[in-house]
From TrEMBL:
Name of the molecule in the record: Hydroxymethylpyrimidine/phosphomethylpyrimidine kinase
Domain of life (superkingdom): Bacteria
GO cellular component terms, semicolon-separated: cytosol
E.C. number: 2.7.1.49, 2.7.4.7
Record pathway: Cofactor biosynthesis; thiamine diphosphate biosynthesis; 4-amino-2-methyl-5-diphosphomethylpyrimidine from 5-amino-1-(5-phospho-D-ribosyl)imidazole: step 3/3; Cofactor biosynthesis; thiamine diphosphate biosynthesis; 4-amino-2-methyl-5-diphosphomethylpyrimidine from 5-amino-1-(5-phospho-D-ribosyl)imidazole: step 2/3
Amino acid sequence: MTVHKALTVAGSDSGGGAGIQADLKTFQELGVYGMSVLTALTAQNTQGVHGVFPVPPEFIAQQMDAVLSDIGTDAVKTGMLFNSIIIETVAKKLKEYNVRNYVLDPVMVAKGGAPLLVTEAVAAVKEHLLPLATVVTPNLPEAKVLTGMEKIETKEEMKEAAKLLHDWGAQHVVIKGGHGTDDIVTDLLYDGREFVELSAERFHTQHTHGTGCTFAAAIAAGLASGKNVREAVKQAKVFITAAISHPLGIGHGHGPTNHWAYRREGSNDV
Ligand SMILES: Nc1ncnc2c1ncn2[C@@H]1O[C@H](COP(=O)(O)OP(=O)(O)OP(=O)(O)O)[C@@H](O)[C@H]1O
Ligand SMILES: Cc1ncc(CO)c(N)n1
């Protein structure tokens, strides 16, 4: 039996809906062996982020060494990296171990508005991580911050942002449309040559905590199992749409998505 492996380098969400918890659940659901390197702990629930405790960079490096020198991985996803020292540490290790399938989710702000990346670190994301990325997956506000564009609302503006991020080194760019307002939510994939639109019904729900983490983790799982980027992104879109459309309804705020909905969708047991 071939075991496909994926590693998430991200923050912990004590509420279980985002961060490494969402990533590991997604890896498991997609049949991939999941591993995790913690960059920060958050005291977090569906109502917001109540505290952030960054992990010392030396210990992040030690976790990456431990996993990559022994088990190895078929794909890496990064999420919350919090500051520029952590970004530089992670970039150095990705290069040292010659990581191939790298999904960069440029996490900046939690749904409730809490910062998960200090503002000064945006330059480090562009300088150290974008050039290593097989796929980068910004939402609309993140794409604006990374590109410096004044607004990204239309398809043409999404395309312009994708081209800039590709020019700056990312091999593929997915601009996520979750933060838009249309009844159809459209993500845009760009590979440097052509654009592919991935559309789905927009669900009017507040249970969208961790959608970005789950989507990027699903792309990493697809790449780890040998899919090409287009196939992996398409599968991730189906996975996240299923997860959003069958909410669990837990907590008092922005609840988590349903990570087992994709697997159980055909069984009326979601
Ligand atoms: N209400 C919704 N209905 C359907 N699909 C959605 C909805 N919200 C987000 N999505 C999809 O979920 C995925 C993640 O997009 P989104 O823009 O929410 O990411 P994000 O803002 O990075 O998430 P996070 O809050 O976890 O950081 C995309 O594929 C997007 O199209
Ligand atoms: C730990 C963590 N990573 C990412 C996000 C973004 O959803 C979050 N809320 N918490």
